[in-house]
Specification:
The complex is a heterodimer. Chain A is an alpha/beta fold. Chain A is 38% helix and 19% strand. Chain A contains 19 helices and 21 strands. In chain A, helix 7 runs parallel beside helix 12. Chain B has twelve helices and 13 strands. Classes of the chains: A alpha/beta, B alpha/beta.
Chain lengths: 607, 351
Amino acid sequence: MTGINDFVVKFANVNGSGSASANGFFAKALFRMGLTVSPKNIFPSNIQGLPTWFEVRVNDKGYGGRRDGVDLFVAMNPQSYEQDIEEVVPGGYVLYDSTMERFFGRDDITILGIPIARMCAYAYEDPRQRQLFKNVMYLGALAALLDMDAEVVELVIRQKLGGKEKLFEANLKALHMGRDYAHANFECPLPVRVQSVPDAPDRIMMSGNDAAGLGCIYAGATGAAWYPITPSTSLAEAFEGYMLKLRGDGEGAYRGAVVQAEDELAAIGIAVGAGWNGARSFTATSGPGISLMGEFIGLAYFAEVPVVIFDIQRGGPSTGMPTRTQQSDVLACAYASHGDTRHVMLIPNDPRECFEFAAQAFDLAERLQTPVFVLSDLDIGMNDWPIEPLSWDDTRSFDRGKVLDAAALEDVERFGRYLDVDGDGIPYRTIPGTHATKGAYFTRGSSHDAYAGYTEDGQINVENMQRLTRKFDGALDLVPKPEEHRRGSGGDAGLIYFGSTHAAVQEALDQLEAQGFAMNALRLRAFPFTQEVLKFAEEHERVFVLEQNRDAQMRTLLMAEAGIPGEKLVPLLNFDGMPLTATFISDALKTALEVEADGDKPAFRIV
Amino acid sequence: MTYMTKPSVRHPALRQNDLGLTRRDYEGVISTLCAGCGHDSVTAAIIEACFELSLPAHRLAKLSGIGCSSKTTNYFLNRSHGFNSVHGRMAAIATGANLANRDLVYLGVSGDGDTASIGLGQFCHAVRRQVNMVYIVENNGTYGLTKGQFSATNDRESRSKKGKDNLFEAIDLCAMAIQLGAGFVARGFSGDREQLVPLIKAAINYDGFALLDIISPCVTFNNHVASTKSYDYIRDHSEAVGGLDFVPPEAEIEVDYEEGASTSITLHDGSKLELSKLSDGYDPRDGHGAIDVIRRQYEQGNVVTGLLYVREDVDDLHARLNTPSQALNALPESDLCPGQVALEAINETMR
């Protein structure tokens, strides 16, 4: 049982019942009080009627990962009472709607019943309001029980409602009813409660998809084509929203085109067509979309067309777990499409990096004239994360790569689209419509020579394929370096990880250090792997590779592409679809280290 | 070498267009299609149309999918950028390219397999979206590159060269395009250049989605007696709805029709479509009527050709998406990146 500024509140709701906004108010108000909150939306692939959860871990130590055990369960869904109640830690609390009284069968926890449905039925006439304000009512009770700053809570609601005073008053009424009931019937506040944190670092709350969509705006993307798929949908929608806000031309038009395509094949095709024609363009999808896009990705690779692809990974294979998180498209993206292909991947760990990597991805795609993947996941993409405010260097300018304009073409004797003029494998490209007589070429997915002419000459094809390898190797100087976390002498073992597990990993490393296991860690941020990765592996006798998939895909990639021997890389795997907790990671590492200390090989896997 | 460029020998007497260019300036590399292929006639008609329009070739982009027909974009307009993409997906490439730069002419060439089978979905959606492009289908009812399989436009009653019956109904791309809201729908025959060239010119000048379904016989795999896409069959069964002349803006109408025998349709840019000798009561502005005529003639074994349907005023994709008049690929960085001040305002809403 934990206490002040260190607890987990979990909400169980019925989806489609309007709980999301009230739960959002709760998280936002705590965030405004200076606490680190990491809300996780655990939702079904369904619109109405099925159980859905919202879990908020609260602390003042800056840990943004999940934590095991629930201190206070707001159990608003009788369908899931049974499983919900099991998650409550001994000494914890359950807040439930006691309109229908219920015996929960645990004597080590405190049950707090509020007849919410009955109170709402008396207070509101409209059936929809009776439903919606149940949520605000339990928020009022929570505010009292946890000693939340009432002004902050009310301001959050007021701002969210954006000046709709009548609606705000109705919300306030529900909020106060909940608060008053709690004060009258329970001992408020509970031992589990919050205190405002003065001088908390400046943070914003944002989802990764929102940040990535905004990053595309800042990158100057003007073409977006996408097909709705969880969990990537909100990225394209964010881009469109920001475009309408920030890209008006002053004459009623908007500087950008967003097409909701008929499928993922068309989505990537439209993005490739726009990229070929000189507009920065992207698509956003998830695993099933990557599978469908394969052929076009190969075309863009081989014909050397810049395009950015966001893969917001979810549980696979097949339809898999569409509303759960995984890191299981690593290999599918690294080698997307048939034949020999290899793709640059940027791997953000939070929404801030989603913004930055989105912007950087377009520079890389145009510099390297190739598809660039941004490998995010559902946890980063769809959940709100507390992050440092976004920033943009106004002196920064787009890297449009090697593009010949009309003046430059004048000086070219014979233009060769795939001619390696500079020896770096990156040829010069031209945009259609540039010059009356020079620079036109025939783009094709069939084998071609340096002048884009069709060829079945094996040697020419070999040279072209080798040039593409050379070009890919050049990405090593351009991709973001890995982030190293050194904790002094880490002993023999190190940890390699990437993406959304970052928050939990940092906490796990703290836990391990407190227990006497100080471990060095390296967070991968891109593929291809730069020298630092190999060096890190060389410096440690054994390297754990933490990833959220069954088949240790990143480990495979490290073996194949960085040449790190497999016996050195110990897989730590999880693929249950939930964001990891620190304890889960530290326990796994500790067990592994102890096994190792006994002289055994810790070649186990975690499920 | 696996492709052949044409020698650029130029006879001084070659006729020049308004840009001072000759037909040769609109040619491409030498065709590798079978001798007598209908597609080569379409290529020639495209060259002729672009030459006569005095089109600056570099302001046109050629797009195609995969198949015999899709190869032909290499056989015309060497000075244009071309994109030979993947099978059945030319429409998506064209859509994206068009979004990036609205100022070019987009000429897509596809086949019946590329459009009516693997690419049917993308074709339909490009029509629905009213992408401003010319979409040519070189329709021969067969898969030539893979040696003679039926395509989805092959008629139910036809038989393959090897004597196999076609078991399934034919897809009529023109009727489908009209139903889906295409702006300009025409059917031509590769063997009738006189009809074809004005249709191509009109389609290029049309602002909106223009479909040209051109019956273009495959001499190798679908030109036999039991074929309904053979030269002989189409010559015997083609029914033109009327003649068409394309009159560029500011040009005088030179064709002299009998009074009342011609209908004039003015396009966006002031150019005119002069329709003559229309069959009884045929009005290409009437979509229901057009579909009715196509179906009825089909039932009698006939192929209707000519300008089948035209809408005088359509909003293309750019108009619907409300993009600026300037090409998106030409917008300067300052118009696209909102900068730190705007970002700080966004941060503030997230605090």
